[in-house]
Design a protein that fits this description.
4 helices; 45% helix; three-stranded antiparallel β-sheet; two-stranded antiparallel sheet; alpha+beta
């Protein structure tokens, strides 16, 4: 019984056996890992937002390519929702030129898909790069490289004066 009372007195008075150094170091590693991951997630979100803005600007500019023959033939004359016909060949060339001239974080933007109907145009673009904080201590190379995709589209709605 005397031994148990000595142990209890030691714990109560703050005399413990062992060190909190390992536990503190573990919490430090966990906090730093979470900070690095949140930096990478925020960076990926910003790049996705910039990629979408660049692609939306290019798709809206390409949707302004009017198909003159279809426009003057008044193909949708009797429809209630009037639309201006798009020249798909010119829209495709214009979109690819605008995307080829745009750079995001010193990386080239890749056009993965481009589709055009007479009244709508849409595309998918992507960019591949490395994350700003390299998590090499996790030994997962696929976490350090990221491909971000964005799909955008536009239509040509006729707005009378």
């Amino acid at each position: 019984m005397a031994i148990n009372s000595k142990i209890i007195k030691g714990i109560v008075l703050g005399q413990s056996r062992g060190s909190l150094m390992a536990l503190s170091f573990g919490f430090y590693l966990l906090a730093m890992t979470l900070a690095f991951i949140s930096i990478n997630v925020a960076s990926a979100y910003n790049i996705k937002k910039e990629l979408t803005n660049i692609a939306e600007g290019a798709i809206n500019k390409s949707a302004q390519s009017i198909n003159i023959l279809a426009y003057y033939a008044e193909l949708n004359r009797f429809n209630s929702n009037k639309q201006v016909p798009i020249d798909c060949v010119v829209a495709n060339i214009k979109f690819h030129n605008l995307i080829a001239n745009a750079r995001l974080s010193d990386k080239q933007i890749l056009v993965e898909d481009f589709n055009c109907s007479l009244y709508e145009v849409w595309a998918q673009v992507s960019i591949t790069g490395k994350l700003p904080v390299d998590l090499t201590f996790l030994h997962l190379d696929q976490l350090n490289t990221l491909t971000i995709r964005s799909k955008v589209g536009a239509s040509s709605v006729y707005m009378p004066n």
